Structure to design on (371 residues):
């Protein structure tokens, strides 16, 4: 019985329907899929360490997975402890910052009054009208922030549990994935899994190393410049730099605002210029060498992946969708009929120079006389 080939409009409709269903399921199941995806990345990153415990130290399967997860937890606890200390030091100066922002606001009021003849009473009336809405929004935001923090803690617990079981059952999961396909395609599936594992290990470890280097560079420059909260601003800029194209500008705006409240406009501009210059050096020199070209995606698709990731999974999606789209490219390059999508996601290959034609070559059918 021959296969029925559907017309183009039917295939297009089915494809769009499948995409909509996938996006809907990912959005509705975000509380399940986000921790699972983070755990997948962490388990692949910890796989060499887990293999070292198993093969070199002859540790049991369960204990090697547990030790790998404990090392991961220890590193994260140390990082968050350092960040918490910096935030606590920053919070001690809140009253002083509030006073400075109040002075800036008063100067802005005087400028409005002198330039646009809007007196202070009119300004305060406008603020009072919107004040109730702002307060309710702020209270709602505080409640959401508390729930988000509790949700993040719960996510972290599940991520560590999922990571442990993925390391413990890695052979079972590998066997499951390969047996989803027919025998003749299993070798290609193993090849894709191997390349995916190498890509994710290179990408995540490279990002961590890049974050460390940028933290050292930012903090050193800010300390030399005498910027207040240099460690907090430098580390925060390095962490937010993980979010492609958007994170660095958010970190720059925050660092300039805090510096402007403490030291004035000139130093705020210097902080912004430093972060932009460091980011340009990072994106053009450091990132290609440290992170490497394992995630071969052009900048246009990378921005789309970040935006779509934020739409589907929020802030975690802005980080997760870059390696996920990289995995999609590896799959598209090897699946017949999907090569075009791999070309769209990837980078442009260097054009191969055309062969020069030797006009003095003999015509076909003639022989060149040798001496």
């Amino acid at each position: 019985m021959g296969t029925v080939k559907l017309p183009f409009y039917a295939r297009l409709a089915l494809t769009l329907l499948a995409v909509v269903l996938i996006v809907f399921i990912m959005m509705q199941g975000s509380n399940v899929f986000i921790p699972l995806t983070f755990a997948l990345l962490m388990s692949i990153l910890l796989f060499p360490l887990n293999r070292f415990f198993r093969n070199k130290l002859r540790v049991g399967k369960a204990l090697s997975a547990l030790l790998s997860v404990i090392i991961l937890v220890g590193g994260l606890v140390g990082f968050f402890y350092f960040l918490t200390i910096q935030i606590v030091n920053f919070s001690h100066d809140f009253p002083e910052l509030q006073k400075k922002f109040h002075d800036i606001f008063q100067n802005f009021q005087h400028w409005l009054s002198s330039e646009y003849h809007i007196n202070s009473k009119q300004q305060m009336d406008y603020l009072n009208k919107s004040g109730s809405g702002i307060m309710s929004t702020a209270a709602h935001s505080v409640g959401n922030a508390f729930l988000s923090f509790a949700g993040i803690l719960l996510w972290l617990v599940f991520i560590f549990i999922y990571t442990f079981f993925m390391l413990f059952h890695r052979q079972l999961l590998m066997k499951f994935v390969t047996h989803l396909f027919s025998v003749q395609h299993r070798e290609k599936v193993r090849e894709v899994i191997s390349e995916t594992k190498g890509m994710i290990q290179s990408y995540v470890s490279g990002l961590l190393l890049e974050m460390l280097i940028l933290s050292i560079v930012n903090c050193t420059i800010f300390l030399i410049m005498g910027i207040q909260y240099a460690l907090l601003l430098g580390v925060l800029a390095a962490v937010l730099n993980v979010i492609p194209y958007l994170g660095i500008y958010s970190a720059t705006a925050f660092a300039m605002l805090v510096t402007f409240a403490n030291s004035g406009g000139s130093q705020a501009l210097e902080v912004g210029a430093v972060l932009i210059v460091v980011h340009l050096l990072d994106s053009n020199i450091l990132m290609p060498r440290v992170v490497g070209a394992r995630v071969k995606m052009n900048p246009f698709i990378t921005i789309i992946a970040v935006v779509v990731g934020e739409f589907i999974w929020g802030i975690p999606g802005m980080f997760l969708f870059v390696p996920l789209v990289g995995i999609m490219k590896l799959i598209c390059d090897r699946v017949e009929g999907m090569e075009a999508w791999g070309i769209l996601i990837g980078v442009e290959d260097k054009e191969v120079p055309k062969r020069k034609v030797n006009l003095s070559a003999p015509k076909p059918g003639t022989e060149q006389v040798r001496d």
Summary: Residues 212 and 238 are 8 Å apart (CA to CA). The chain has a mean pLDDT of 78.
